[in-house]
Design goal:
This protein has 270 residues and is an alpha+beta fold. The chain is built from 7 helices and 15 strands. The protein is 32% helix and 34% strand. The radius of gyration is 23 Å and the shape is elongated.
Length: 270
């Protein structure tokens, strides 16, 4: 990574609330704190105990399942008091390449999820949750993602590349009418919300990186994070509504059943 890129990620902090275990290196004294932000450059915390400038610590925290960070060395670089304790900024010292890579991945995940079209509403916490249930998928150019006439239990977001939506299930793209070209940051496959068979085929127009979310995981999200699931549902319906309104009505009638059109356009006003 170039120095300029490294500095960019050091400044790109994300806002998260997590428990943090703090150990003063010189004395071995153990303390507890609460994370307020994190980047590959350091961590912001609140604590009931005053941390003097320059104090070197070992900090441990968990961002998400599989992302535990233990004993990262950090130095206190700023501190201020507030009504309930102290807020401190700690700068990582000699961060191991693997820890740096994992922290960068977290920052990237938040940036990518919030960068999806009309997904700016996601908080950093929600972006972490959503990324955790989305599977990253890779498709080669001309590879079929889902096929007309078959059930599709997933919807997708394009991280890189382009996807063509066609009416015929034929891998020879030149012989297939392309109904729509889905570009980076856009969603597709929203019809999976209504179950049933796919009315069109999705094919990788270029080599693609996609985020895939299953209907099962989406339904489970309602049990664990109702507000986030509701926000996501509204945006999926809005995306489908925009697609229906932008298409020729004759094409719409062949791809989307009338009942779906009526429900979508009635539910969301663009």
């Amino acid at each position: 990574m170039k120095l300029s890129e490294n500095r960019k990620y050091e400044r790109a902090a994300i806002t998260l609330s997590r428990d943090v275990k703090i150990t003063e290196l010189s004395s071995g004294r153990k303390m507890k704190g609460r994370m307020t932000s994190v980047s590959i450059g350091g961590i912001g915390i609140t604590t009931e105990v005053f941390l003097p400038l320059g104090m070197k610590t070992a900090v441990s925290f968990k961002i998400r399942e599989g992302s535990n960070f233990n004993g990262l060395i950090a130095k206190v670089i700023n501190v201020k008091s507030f009504s309930e304790g102290f807020a401190a900024g700690l700068e990582f010292i000699g961060l191991a390449p693997e820890d740096s890579r994992r922290l960068k991945t977290v920052v990237d995940d938040v940036s990518v999820m919030r960068g999806l079209k009309n997904f700016e509403f996601l908080t950093h916490e929600e972006a972490i949750v959503l990324r955790g249930i989305c599977k990253e998928m890779y498709f080669k150019k001309h590879e079929i993602i889902y096929t007309e006439g078959r059930e599709n239990n997933y919807f997708y977001a394009v991280a890189k590349g382009k996807v063509s939506i066609t009416k015929k299930s034929n891998i020879e793209i030149k012989k297939v009418e392309v109904l729509e070209l889905i570009r980076e940051r856009e969603l597709f496959g929203e019809m999976a919300l209504f179950k049933g068979k796919s009315a069109a085929t999705a094919i990788a127009y270029t080599d693609c990186v996609l985020f895939r979310l299953s209907i099962e995981d989406f339904n489970n999200l309602y049990k664990t994070d109702y507000d986030l699931a509701t926000k996501l549902l509204v945006e999926l319906i809005r995306s489908l509504s925009r697609r229906i309104k932008s298409m020729n009505q004759e094409i719409v009638d062949t791809v989307y059943p009338g009942s779906v059109q009526a429900l979508v356009l009635k539910t969301v006003k663009i």
